[in-house]
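Researcher: Last one for today. Full complex below.
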Amino acid sequence: MTHPSIVCLDTWFATRLTSDVADWLRTQITAIKSGDSTALGLAFSSASRRAGDSVLNLNEAEKKSAHHAHPGWNPTAWPLSQAIRARLILAFPDHDAADWYHTIERLFSTASIEELVALYQTVPLMPFSELMRDRAAEGLRSSMQPVFAAVALDNPFPATQLHQDIFNQMVLKAFFTSADITRIYDLERRANHSLARMLCDYAQERRAASRSVDARLWQVVGWSADARIRPDLEKTLQHGSPDEQATVRSVLATTSFVDAAS
Amino acid sequence: MMFIDPHVHMSARTTDDYEAMRAAGVVAVIEPAFWIGQARTNVGSFQDYLSSLIGWERFRASQFGIRHYCCMGLNSKEANNEALAQQVMELLPLYLAKDGVVAVGEIGFDDQTKAEERFFRAQLELAKIAHLPVMIHTPHRDKKNGTIRSMEICQEHGLPPHQVIVDHNNEETVQSVLERGYWAGFTIYPKTKMGSERMVEVVRRFGCERIIVNSSADWGVSDPLAVPKTANLMSIRGIPQDHIIATSYGNALAAYGQSGQFNEHDWTSPEAIDQRKLFDGNSVLRGQEPVIDLHAQR
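Model: Here's the assembly. Have a good evening.
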């Protein structure tokens, strides 16, 4: 049975690739399917030279099929080169976990920025999710903002696979680096007291330095629904910016706080 | 006026340099793979260095509104460790295919040993397969002889001269390089070797065809503002404007643009690029944006 994400990609390519590129891709996939990791490496690298600058730009039906193939998968803004890179990765045989992992790891360890973004955005589609957890955590440690964002934003993997401590550090770093936290998949479900505590401390640190606090931080804090953060919310009603106060009022109005240890 | 510094080792430079280069009008830099001051002892450090040229350093440059490109290669000095050099040769084909790689380089001779020649030749063949121009580092000692030898070897391997940039020229080498149809790179050093005043006279004498100015700024005493400063001096000394543009921008663009990876619209229309801005939602790569607070990244 063909992986549903492969079916999606191939369907989208049919209406988007020139025949030259489609032929090239077909040839590469054939070689890669036989386990040729050199072909995978070279095709993976040169994908952007083939694909040019266009973006997938999925229509509504295509977006639905993506989500159906893998919940949280939202490749509508993927460059075409990135979709091709994903397709190449997914072509590599996965009957031997060790061999598969070694080959994919090699792609990570020799990757350019664009390739790292493609790899991390494809992680949720890869087999052996449990093997990829450490690698995803490594991506979150990247100092290259697009690479961090490739793991943290528009990516279901952290919410579905990563341990709470790693997930929390990711959210904190997102606030730290002004990444768009509204694009963190399933943040509401994964919010927890420990994260809320870290974010409250961060807000306090910012306030002590007379720096602004992203009002959305309080929404995330509120999602933990833990009664222990109420005092921080109350304080924000007194001392926060108008945006922060508005967010906190909304949180207080809609949250049933729980008096329990997380 | 926009400048290109087509030979500069930005990994060895601080963010102060990026800021100064940006302020002076440098829009794009090319960083050739080189040694790092002391000999590498294992292929892993080569791999990580080559990865940094297409990864961290490229990103670091973007934070200052400068587009960063690189050349991939095994430098002449480290070609003398043959066992290690062979391992590096196995890495290179993969790295030559990466985005933003505009040439094989900087390769050539240092002491003009047999080992250096062996790996120089092997990389010329790689350049042909990869359809990339070649950046040649000419030796600082016995330069005239080494430069001619380098060009003869290129000719033996069938590389068309317009695909080869012979760098670190001086008054003794420039004529034979230009005569044979190669691009002639000039590195402007603050104290020794070729300086700005001498460069002005080279252009006055030889014109601007195929002449390219660069800084080769690295971990030693060097000036990352060499290109804009030399252009400025040329202007003061009455060199025609179009000669200045050619030697500090246009020729570099033409020479390395042959790779297909080095295009003016990368920095004049940054909206044409690309997935980065889609992921972080802000415009880190827009050349016109102010400096971003790097401390926030830690």
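The interface with chain B takes residues 41-42, 45-46, 48-49, 53, 55, 77-79, 82, 109-117, 143-146, 149-150, 153-154, 176-180, 183 of chain A (CB under 8 Å). The CA atoms of residues 55 and 79 of chain A lie 4 Å apart.
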